[in-house]
Amino acid sequence: MRESMRRYLAALALVLYLGLAGWPAMAQAADSAVILMYHRFGESAYPSTNIKIEQLEAHIQELTSGGYTVLPVAEIMSRIRDGNALPDRAVGITIDDGYRSIYTEAWPRFRKAGLPFTIFISTDPIDRGADGQLTWDQIREMRKTGVRIGAHTGSHLHMVRADENRNRDEITRSNKRLMEELGEAPTLFAYPYGETGLDVKKVVDQAGYAFIFGQHSGAIGPMTDLTYIPRFALNENFGSLGRLKLVINALPLPAKDFTPLDTKVGSVNPPHFGFTVARPLKNLGQMNCFVSGEGRVPITRLGESRIEIRPSKPFGKGRTRINCTLPADGGRWHWLGTLFVAP
């Protein structure tokens, strides 16, 4: 009896030790994930949207190191929506626009590594046979191996600059071409440039997509807006292995009651940005928020959980990002981002 108890206690101690020492993350249940976004691969003429091949290979090595579980983004979002558990450190991979280097560089490497991914394509450049774009035959070939295809409008439109009829026409034309070429309507959509506003979100949501993605930084969780899902962009300047490790270990910052509701900048510029932290978090006083073009900005904390940010400079034309981060246990970070657009 004593010997069996001794073995039991020894086994229990080993399990606890392995858990604390970094037992594979996939053994742990979680309710959050991170989604990555790429564009081009090995196209050094476009550094703002390109990832170097050596960077890509380093990313793949890290993602397959055993600490992460890469899942199709549709599965990740379905589990989030339905309240089903995810593996800890779940990661999704997306690629925007439909450049040919997806087929020649990314697909062979992701396929060899067993990493699923989704492509959001704009259909007009492919129909025109534009230089450097995928062809429909290449898209169908990748799709047969499990690559998921999502919509990205027809022309890669700045949707916040267009009226409702133009936006609706772009979506209708894109969906029609995807149906004709691939035999099914898309259920995933990504805003071109990550730009949106209340009027744009309404039109896109009415098109019936299950999940709609932006280009603002942040992890996803149960409180994520399914019509404005964050993704971490990776390129030559923001694609180091250190940054990859930082973002794929990020946690959502649970927030609600955002102001303003509209991310299209109107008459109030800069906008009065704020949110309420939806559940208690440790070290809330250590939160930092950053505005592109301005850097770290002061935070006003109202009561226990309301966060207000007042940038000092008007947002210029185009896109302005706000990112808020808060240290979490284990060297991880809660991360929330928003992208404003002044059309």
Structural write-up:
The chain is built from nine helices and 21 strands. It is of the alpha/beta class. The chain has two domains: 231 residues, TIM Barrel, CATH 3.20.20.370; 87 residues, Sandwich (Immunoglobulin-like), CATH 2.60.40. The strands form six sheets. Strands 2, 5, 7, 8, 9 and 12 form a six-stranded parallel beta sheet that branches. Helix 4 links the parallel strand 7 and strand 8. Helix 2 runs parallel beside helix 4 and helix 7 runs parallel beside helix 8. It is globular and about 55 Å long. The termini are far apart.
Radius of gyration: 21 Å
Beta percentage is 25-35%
CATH architecture level-2 label of the largest domain: Alpha-Beta Barrel
Helix content: 25-40%
Please write the string of helix (H) and strand (E) elements: HEEEEHEHEEHEHHEHEHEEHEEEEEEEEE
CATH class of the largest domain: Alpha Beta
What are the low-pLDDT stretches, counting only 5+ consecutive residues below 50?
1-27
